[in-house]
């Protein structure tokens, strides 16, 4: 892994869809009939320029949306565990990181703690924590039970007194401590919001590994556990998480690109042309196929069965299936590449928009995408209806920002950025609380479970 070359994103790498027009002719009749698509005129109020923000994005989150309105971030103390020090350090580190990235909690500095931790043990003396402004406290203990680590983790709400409001116990191997902490943090988020968090899920992406070579990589939602996945080719692109694992497009010796699943040497879908890009959702697969100088999207069963053509005209790429089965994708049928949903154009601003993904934002379903109207890429979101006024900017004046991905719970957005040497950043769906979680750079970022 130390030899891995994570190349910074360039315009050449972004125009991967151009590869589609060089593929050999696709066997046309296999995929069924071609539905007609109507052109949508620009809606009233549409503008040619991308929206900007009145103040820099990426700053500290001040408030969060909760049932019944907004409130300030919940001030949370994560105390050392009773028990072995290394395990305690891991728990505090992982939990503090998760809670900070959530944009729901303000994690208090341990140096501010005035409570007598030894005397408190696994309980709390509310006054001691109230004095430093803590509204909640996470505590627990660890011990060995045979070869496993036993964890007892507790959440206290200071205003509710000395009884824990959430108690969870875990028995895991030493290598499973991080995962147990992620599970507990998800339960804490659920206690406050009614919906569990997405900590412990993983992201996949492709990255340059050498000259003319690309590989598929996976990384934890907090930036830990970066690893390379085994692929059938040293040119592996456009990964997506689907039924039972990770799927990707692989360049073959005969010049074609075929769809594979990690762990299998047989193609999921094989065709004489170029298969480049796939999306899953709602029990369906959406597949990008090149033929006759065009790139079109075919949809069918998640195993690749019953594929039929869903687009017509121009280059159509980057499929993403929404929570209701809607198909979002990129098409240049109207001139410049723009975002479409089920044949209807939904992005009317900017000269080049691409890489859409669906995001189940707690404030309403949105489509995230990367766009530009100059030399720099930024992250935007738009309502699936395509209302011109619904387009929002998440990044601005912070390097080039590309390939957004949304967490399964809709509360976090991941993307690549060139700022500060480059890497993967997380923010909330409004573009605030931007934090780098990894120095890895690449393209085609996807988040497991979404």
Automatic annotation (TrEMBL):
Transmembrane segments: none annotated. This is TolB N-terminal domain-containing protein. Residues 1-38 form the signal peptide. Belongs to the TolB family. Keywords: Signal. The keyword 4Fe-4S does not apply. The keyword Amino-acid biosynthesis does not apply. Residues 63-163 form the TolB N-terminal domain. Pfam families: PD40 (PF07676), TolB_N (PF04052).
